[in-house]
């Protein structure tokens, strides 16, 4: 069974399996010193799934990574990192923490760009040429694994052109450089310190497992090509001819009367696309684009998407055992990019509609509870009886046995008092709720999030 895990890290302990890659070398330290300041950690709150159906969503803390691609503050990361984000903060290598906003996200590639506004130029990384990578080449990865902070690991390119079935252009780099939850969006660097990939996913047969030596990165040539379209609204759209392709297999080749499996077979032809106008139809087998052999369906789609809109695409292949030669006029890819900030707005709306679930269970203070948690006999309030592992309250350090004694300056006597205060603050569109918590180590105020800061 194939289980693939994206690498944004929800703040919860996860079991892992030790894995070993190549050891760090002297040159790696120089690369880290040069590239490290341009790699950032990303900390954000997302709208998490409710604990039970019908209950409000919970705010979940997520850690991930990114890297600066422009001194003005543009940062590349994965789309799945920012999807549903309520608040995004970027943490630089010197510890500075600044808010960030989503600029744009790709529709069919796990790529997004966020922006920070600072009063000085930022160090930026350069795109490398992923097409020059070979299996066995040394690579480094830098990111924020498990939310521990910036870390670097070394490895090699284990394989190229991996298909994870995420989209029509999949061509992932496989690496054994240690990457874990939280590495999402971080750079995969070559021996020159240039970005040759964006860390995106890991493979583990255990759904909650960690890195076992198989990680994947989006090739830089694909990512940088997409970045041009995302950041420049006047840039011509990617090319499109209106076909859905799949890889040829030996069995399909035999069925089609071909001597060997090569190219891609047409499974769907868009009725309004250029391919239909040119006469292409299902069961046609395509092998070359403008004289260049394409190894599989994804390579074919990557070749088409790079062609200028309006240009002729010369395709060759086979139909019913006979040679096929056709020219298709490349059109603009329809609806290739979502509206700016849509995903974040949808997630924020979820939090606006209902008061958030803080992820804690409250109970009255009984004599048994006083004995179990060694509470002062005079202490009154709402007892915290349980805390979910990935909720905001857990991130704030609230644990079972704590007692909420005051909310927004009002004394608390029962759990219902806390729930009423949360609902009231939510109705007033407050961003945070101030709660006084009595714990074993003392009394402190914490600020519980109520809505998105942007709502």
Polypeptide structure, described:
There is one protein chain. This protein is α+β, with helices and mostly antiparallel strands and 455 residues long. The chain folds into 3 domains: 228 residues, Beta Barrel (Thrombin, subunit H); 93 residues, Pdz3 Domain (Roll); 95 residues, PDZ domain (Pdz3 Domain). It has 10 helices and 28 strands. The strands form 5 sheets. The chain has a 6-stranded antiparallel beta barrel with strand order 9-10-11-14-13-12. A 6-stranded antiparallel β-barrel has the order 3-4-5-8-7-6. It is elongated and about 90 Å long. The protein starts with a strand and ends in a 6-residue tail after the last strand. About 5% of the residues have low confidence.
**CATH architectural arrangement of the largest domain:** Beta Barrel
CATH class value of the largest domain: Mainly Beta
* Global mean pLDDT: 81
Oligomer: single chain
Poorly predicted residue ranges: 9-20, 336-345
Instruction: Assign the CATH topology of the largest domain.
Output: Thrombin, subunit H
Strand order of the largest sheet: 9-10-11-14-13-12
* Main sheet properties: 6 strands, antiparallel, barrel
Residues in β-strands, percent? 35-45%
In which range does the helix fraction lie? 10-25%
Shape: elongated
Distance between the termini: 41 Å
Count of beta strands: 28
Query: Structural class given helices, strands, pairing?
Result: alpha+beta
Radius of gyration: 26 Å
Total helical segments: 10
Number of domain modules = 3
């Amino acid at each position: 069974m194939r289980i693939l895990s994206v690498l944004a890290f929800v703040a919860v302990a996860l079991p892992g399996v030790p894995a070993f890659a190549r050891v760090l070398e002297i040159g790696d330290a120089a690369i880290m010193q040069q590239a490290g300041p341009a790699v950032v950690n990303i900390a954000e709150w997302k709208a998490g799934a409710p604990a039970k159906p019908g209950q409000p969503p919970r705010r979940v803390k997520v850690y991930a990574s990114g890297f600066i691609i422009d001194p003005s503050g543009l940062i590349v990361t994965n789309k799945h990192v920012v999807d549903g984000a309520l608040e995004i903060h970027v943490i630089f290598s010197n510890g500075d923490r600044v808010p960030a906003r989503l600029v744009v996200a790709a529709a069919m590639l796990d790529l997004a760009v966020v922006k920070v506004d600072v009063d000085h130029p930022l160090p930026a990384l350069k795109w490398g040429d992923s097409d020059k990578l070979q299996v066995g080449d040394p690579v480094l990865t830098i990111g924020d694994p498990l939310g521990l902070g910036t870390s670097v690991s070394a490895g090699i390119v284990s394989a190229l052109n991996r298909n994870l079935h995420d989209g029509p252009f999949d061509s992932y780099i496989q690496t054994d450089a240690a990457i874990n939850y939280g590495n999402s969006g971080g750079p995969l660097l070559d021996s020159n310190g240039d970005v040759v990939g964006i860390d995106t996913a890991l493979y583990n047969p255990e759904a909650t497992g960690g890195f076992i030596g198989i990680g994947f990165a989006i090739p830089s040539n694909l990512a940088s090509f997409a970045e041009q379209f995302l950041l420049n609204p006047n840039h011509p759209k990617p090319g499109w001819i209106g076909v859905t392709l799949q890889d040829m297999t030996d069995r399909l080749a035999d069925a089609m009367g071909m001597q060997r499996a090569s190219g891609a077979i047409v499974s769907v032809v868009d009725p309004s696309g250029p391919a239909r106008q040119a006469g292409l139809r299902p069961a046609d087998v395509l092998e070359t684009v403008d004289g260049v052999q394409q190894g599989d369906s994804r390579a074919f789609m990557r070749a088409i998407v790079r062609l200028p809109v309006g240009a002729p695409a010369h395709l060759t292949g086979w139909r019913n055992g006979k040679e096929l030669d056709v020219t298709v006029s490349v059109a603009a890819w329809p609806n290739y990019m979502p509206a700016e900030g849509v995903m974040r707005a949808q997630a924020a709306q979820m939090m606006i509609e209902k008061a958030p679930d803080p992820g804690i269970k409250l109970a009255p203070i009984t004599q048994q509870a006083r004995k179990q948690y060694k509470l002062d006999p005079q202490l009154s309030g709402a007892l915290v009886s349980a805390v979910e592992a990935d909720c905001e309250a857990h991130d704030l350090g609230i644990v079972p046995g704590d007692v909420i004694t005051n909310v927004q300056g009002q004394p608390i006597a029962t759990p219902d008092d806390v729930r009423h205060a949360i609902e009231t603050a939510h109705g007033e569109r407050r961003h945070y709720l101030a709660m006084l918590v009595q714990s074993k180590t003392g009394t402190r105020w914490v600020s519980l999030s109520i809505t998105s800061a942007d709502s």
